[in-house]
Structures are given as C-alpha cells and as structure tokens.
Amino acid sequence: MNWQSIDYSVEGGVAAITLRRPERLNAIDDHMPGEIRQAVEVADADRKVHVIVVQGAGRAFCAGYDLKLYAEAERPNPAVQEMPWDPTVDFRFMHANTADFMSLWRCAKPTIAKVHGYAVAGGSDIALACDLVVMAEDARIGYPPARVWGVPTTAMWVYRVGAERAKRMLFTGDLIDGVEAARMGLVLEAVPADRLDERVAELAGRIAGVPLSQLMMMKMMINQAYENMGLASTQALATLFDGIARHSPEGVWWKQRAEEVGFAQAVAERDSGDPIAPDVGR
C-alpha cells in the first residue's frame, strides 16, 4: 500500500496503525479515514495478526479534523456546502468517514488505541471506536465541536460512559485528562506518559496469545449487545446532525469567523466560554 496519512507495520502478532501527519498533530485529512479502514482490512485478513494498535506519530494521537483544510478554507469544501445545502451529500461524506473509523470496532480482531497528547474531536471518534483505550495520564480527550460546528458521528460517548456523563462532556465540549477519563470509565486505564508504550505492549502481547477464534467470538458477542441497543441508528442520527451543525446559523457564523481570523483564533473563541454567535438572530 502507498499510504499517505498513516503507516502500517506488523510485529509479533500485533499490527500497528500509526496516524502520520505529525506536523498537523495527525489531524484528519481526506486520506486518513479510508486508509485506516484499508489497514484494518489488511490486518483482519492476516492470520498472523491477533490484535491491532492505533497510535499517533509525534506529539499527539489525533487533533481531530484538519480545520485548516475544512474550517479556514473557503466554501465549498467537503465539510461545508454553499447554501442552500443538500443534507444527503453531506451525509454520504460523513457517513463514509464514520464507517471507516468504525471498522476498528466492527473488525474481527481486538483494537487498542494508544493515546498521548491529544485525542480531540474527530480524534476522539477514532480512539473511542477502538475496543480498548489506554491513555497517558497527561493526555487530553474531548469533543470541543459539541459547542458549535459538530456532533460526534460515532456516538460512542454514551455507550462508554452512559447518558449523564456523556451529556456532561458534550454539553460543555470540555477536554479531560487521562486520569479523569479512566475515572469516569471512558477509557480502560491511564498510565504515566513514560510507561504508555510499555503498558500497551504488555496488553497487546497478552491478547495476542489468545486464539483468533476466541477473540472473534468474544468481540462479536459483546459488540452485538451494543448493536441491539441501536448503535447503528444512533450513529446515523448523529451523522445527520453533524451536517446540520455545520450548516445551522451558528455553524455558518463560526465558519465565517474561522475564515476571517483563522481557525486557531476561532477555536480559542469557541472554547472560551463566552456566548457563541452572539449576533445570529432567530
């Protein structure tokens, strides 16, 4: 494979998918979602692979969608259409990305996210689509676009922490560190940053010793409980809402603000706690 935004390697029964845009904190571009799915399919078909680890190169796991490509760039672009917008066009784009991320959840083999630095917005979608998440204690995770211009299309927050904690995170868009994420049950565990590689290697090695058939049956049985709770329909609704969030009056206002002052300043204003889109009337 000629990967553009990831790397793929296999060692000792463990496949590693490395998000590789370190100069952009591994922010999601047009290539990354599909390449993740392709790498998962390669690992799934390889009988030598028993477990898949997803990690980020450089200083972060993944800082979400590359807002320089989508928020700061003039419309139209894949994330924002001219008005009036066609919800079905947007849904096809985002649903494809969601399905790519969820290949980590729905493949036959266990997946582990190794999170350092940031797993923010779309980066949290990738991490939470994995079966297990191990974070560095000082890493940060959250979905800030819940404040404006986004809805988590994988919808994994509620399935991991329940309704009240999911609401607490998505009503605020706050980031929390690995210690807090482990305490609330969002992730499996948090370890000191200098032990993250070692701990994930220990866990992956332990899993890799189990027969493939056993791993597949355990994963399918547990995942089916979530499917029975309506995971697929919840994701479809979330993906539709994500498009609405980017084309609502407030979403359009924030997009224009990102074009005017740059995405970094627009993000800082979004996350400051001040009212968002104060001049947008109803």
Question: How would you explain this protein's 3D organization?
Answer:
Helix content is 48%, strand content 14%. It contains 11 helices and 9 strands. By secondary structure, the chain is α/β, with parallel strands linked by helices. The protein is globular, with a radius of gyration of 18 Å.
Write a brief structural summary:
With about 280 residues, this protein is of the alpha/beta class. Helix content is about 50%, strand content about 15%. Helix 3 packs across helix 9 (about 230-245) and helix 10 (about 250-260) packs across helix 11.
Identify the notable features of this structure and list them briefly.
282 residues, alpha/beta, six-stranded mixed β-sheet, three-stranded mixed β-sheet, 11 helices, 9 strands, 14% strand, globular
Radius of gyration: 18 Å
The side-by-side strand order for the widest beta sheet comes to 1-2-3-4-6-9
* Overall geometry: globular
Class from secondary-structure proportions: alpha/beta
Distance between the termini: 50 Å
Q: Number of helix segments?
A: 11
Topology:
Blueprint: E1 6-11, E2 14-19, H1 32-45, E3 51-56, H2 67-70, H3 87-106, E4 111-115, E5 118-120, H4 122-128, E6 132-136, E7 140-142, H5 156-172, E8 175-177, H6 178-183, E9 189-191, H7 196-208, H8 212-228, H9 231-247, H10 249-261, H11 263-270
Parallel strand pairs: 2-3, 3-4, 4-6, 5-7, 6-9
Antiparallel strand pairs: 1-2, 7-8
